[in-house]
Amino acid sequence: xxxxxxxxxxxxxxxxxxxxxxxxxxxxxxxxxxxxxxxxxxxxxxxxxxxxxxxxxxxxxxxxxxxxxxxxxxxxxxxxxxxxxxxxxxxxxxxxxxxxxxxxxxxxxxxxxxxxxxxxxxxxxxxxxxxxxxxxxxxxxxxxxxxxxxxxxxxxxxxxxxxxxxxxxxxxxxxxxxxxxxxxxxxxxxxxxxxxxxxxxxxxxxxxxxxxxxxxxxxxxxxxxxxxx
Length: 229
Hints:
Radius of gyration: 20 Å
Strand content: under 5%
Mean pLDDT: 85
Helix content: 40-55%
Largest sheet: none
Number of domains: 1
Shape: globular
Oligomer: single chain
């Protein structure tokens, strides 16, 4: 991932990509969400064509969005010829299946977050008293979460050292925390994803021998990009 906080996509396109994804095609999971060509319309191309509301992931979970995108991008590198090892089609299938399950897990957790905070019922253009109360409640929640983030001075290096921003930007995004609805489920989904990749490597390449099984396991564990604690 680069210094950008996350990849832009809407929840409808996430759902469509999950539904249309076939692990047996043996290609990395990607979330496609095309920008429409109509000025002054923020909807993506798919939502515009379907005449449905184009909803982005909840602001209180943008850090989790970033983590999901980071994991998917990391997983896509198992198809790269530039990596340390060559990974065969059996292993690729396991990665594809695990990626789809991870996205399903995120989708369910994000919906749980929306229900808990009444976001599914919010019409941001409705100025009624009840709608204003729901909007203000979530805004207060976001403000409290941002205020409690660990203080981090912004990098002073500008564009001379982009790696500083790679570390800084994701840490400023809000994530689910212990005690939040969906936190345990999302933590388990990420851990299960890594576990499935490790089990696939062990099944296909073993632990020792000419396939460098032990080195492959260490490679996967050491390179996994998201903290599971």
